[in-house]
Amino acid sequence: MKRREVIRLGTTGLALGALGFGFGRSALAQQKMVLKAADVHPLGYPTVEAVVRLGKKLEAQTEGRLSVQMFPSMQLGGEKEMIEQAQVGALQFARISVGPMGPVVDELNVFNMPFVFRDVPHMQKVIDGAIGDEMLAKLTNSPQSKVVGLAWMDAGARSVYNSKKPIKSIDDLKGLKIRMMGNPIFVDTMNALGGNGIAMGFDQLYSAMQTGVVDGAENNPPSYESGKHFQVAKYYSLTEHLIIPEILIFSRVTWDKLSAADQALLKKVGKEAQLEERKLWADKEKESMDLIKKAGIEVLTFTPDQKKRFQDAVKPVWDKYGGKYADLVKRIQAVN
Ligand code: BDP
User: Fold this and answer.
1) Choices 3.40.190.170, 3.40.50.300, 3.30.559.10, 3.40.50.720: CATH for 158-243+290-334
2) Full strand arrangement of the beta sheet holding 246-251
C-alpha cells in the first residue's frame, strides 16, 4: 500500500512537474521581451543601423513580442565591458570586433593576424563560407564564451593615423605610440612594425590622443571619421595591416530561455543583418573618405613594394602565434 502510494505520488509529481515546466516555457515564450543591444559606434553607423533594422524585423515578425532597444555610442562602456554584460545576461546583443573576442576564444584569433586576408573581398568570402560558420559555432560552443555567435559584420581594413607626421614608409612609424585594441597580437604587430603598441579601450582613445598619451591609433575610415579621431590625428596612411571582421553576439543566458522557434528567427534575421550591413558599410566607407578629405586630412597610400615591407615586418608575429592556426590559415588562403 505504502509503496503504491509512493509510486502514484511520484508519477503525479513528475506529470505536474512536466506540465509546470511546459506552462512555464510557453508562458515565457509568449512574454514580451525587450532585447538590449549595444555598440561602441553612434546611431547611423552601419553596424548600429543593421542591428536597429534587425530589431524592427523581429518586432514585425513577432507582432511586437520581441523588440530591440539599442544603446549606441559606448553608452554601456567599451567592448570588453559589453562582452562581460552579454555573458551575464545584462545585455542581449553586443556587436563587437573579433579583436577583443580573441582572448575569450583563442581560435578566433586567426582573423586577428596581420595580413591574414589578401583583401576585403577575400575576408568577406571567408566569413560567408564554411570557415565563417565554423568559427561562429566555435564561439557558440566554447564553454567559456557564454555567448552565441549570431552573425558577422564587415569593418573593412584598418590603417594607421597619428598626430605627429605623415607615415610615408614603414620607417616613419618608428617610436610612435599607437593605440591598439586589447589583444597581445595587436601590440606585437605594432611593435613589429616599428611603432610602440599600447593596448587601450576604444572608449578611452579620443581623450588619450587629445592629451598626447598616445600619438595615434589605427582603424577603418568610418571609425576614424565618425569617432572624430581625424580632428586630433591628421595623418592617415592606408597600411591596411589588419582586416578584422566584426561579430554580433547574443547572451547565452537569454538564449537558453528562448523557444527553439525564436532562436531560429534570431539566426535568420542575424544572417540577413550580415548582408545588409555589408551594403551599408560600402556606402559609409566612401562617405567617410570624402568627409575626411574635405576636412583636409592627408590620406597616404603605398605602392605594392612599400606595402611588402609592412608585410615582411610582421613575420615575428607569425612566428610567435601562427603555428597554432597553421591548418586554418591554409584553408583561408585556399578561399578564392
Ligand atoms: C572599430 C570597431 C569596433 C572596435 C574599434 C576599436 O568597429 O568594434 O571597438 O574599432 O578600435 O573599427 O576598438
Assistant:
1) 3.40.190.170
2) 66-71, 33-38, 93-97, 246-251, 147-153
